[in-house]
Write a structure and sequence with these properties.
CATH architecture of the largest domain: 2-Layer Sandwich
Order of helices and strands: HHHEEHEHEHEEHHHEHHEEHHEE
Helix content: 55-70%
Structural class: alpha+beta
CATH class of the largest domain: Alpha Beta
Radius of gyration: 38 Å
Number of helices: 13
Number of domains: 3
Strand order of the largest sheet: 3-2-1-6-5-4
CATH topology of the largest domain: Heat Shock Protein 90
Number of strands: 11
Shape: elongated
Amino acid sequence: MLKFATVVPPVGFLVAFAYLSHHVLLESVHTAVALSALIAISAPIIYFFSRWVFARIEAAENRALSRHRELLLLNTVAGAASQPMRLEQVLQVAVDGAVEATGVSGGLVCILDEANEELLHVACRNIPDSLLGPLRKVKLEADAIGNQVVKTGQPVQIRDITLDPRVGAKGKKSGFRSLLSLPLKSEGKVNGVMALVSKEPMTFDESQVSFLLTMGGQLAAAIERAKLRQQIADIAVIEERERIAREMHDGLGQVLGYINTQTLALKRLLSDNRIEEAKEEATKMEEAARELYADVREGILGLRMAPHREGGFLPALNAYIIRFEEMSGISVTLASSEEALNSHLSPSAEVQLMRIVQEALTNVRKHSKANSVRIDVDCIDGRLAICVSDDGDGFDPARLQIAGWPRFGLHTMGERAESVGGTFKVDSETGSGTRVSVSIPIDEHSWTGVIA
């Protein structure tokens, strides 16, 4: 339309000007008065036409700039949502960008807690604490506008909140005048609400509302992913507790059961005045208690050595090895390639791999009679491979399989490796030591020390 307006009207004006000059004012066109009259007529027309054209160009530039800012904000929010950032940080980036892009006075983002039917205020910009409340949450039934947005999945726009009966007394006295409340909706499901407020009367056009709804969809997807990650983390915690429970049953439970049985035997020996035999049983019980104490100390140390707290898997493993050598008196050598030092595992993979190595070292201490252990860490075909080998007595794997699982915690170690997509293998031979090998996929997108 702008191109049409800058071509057709000027051509029409030139045609009219030529007609007037040659036919209407033909006889007096060369006189000063006639020429002045033509200039006086044409100059304002040209001036106002130019003003109109430049105004349209400026409006088009402003619209283009506004769309550019909106696209830039969408890209920023999408980038933040794809990075290992806390959900609160992603939502804060979004509300800051929305306030700047629309020119409103402030805004906030709430997450919907479906179980408790509450809106949780997670991120805000220029919203006073008196409106947010001390707990930063509000029941849906107490927020008529938020409840409407959640129930209908449609935005609500109010030009003057002081005249709207759905707005409470605090909102009317807040100093804000206009409100736009939008659902954060993804695949038809509302996961939260974004509210933008202005101190001046303001009406959002359809393009602005459409843009904010698009950004709301990105935020809803980010909220959904955060909820899914939390569910996965909860499941991982439950599974880890079950594994620890099995390990305690296989280790501590058996030893405590043995001590209980030996206590009964010791009582019978003492009642029969069989002192020497009673002393032997007491010595065995003492050794079992000492072994149990070492197991407990080792278990506590293993649980305390969290990879992320120590800066990653290898630093945490090295710290554990130092403590293990102090407790067991067994020499441990850790050898890792440069690729292994620069590789990263997902948090769950790091935890499971640490537990596998800890259990392998526990087996060395308890069963192998080894003097030294070597741990080799390398990257092979996109996987982190670890081999724990000792110079102990070893055992016959065939006899171990006949005895059945679990034995020496090998079954649990295999479960841990499988839970993070890894493989687990044990090679041993009587008199030739034991080699425990585990391989786990490397997470190329993880960042050290950051929990997504």
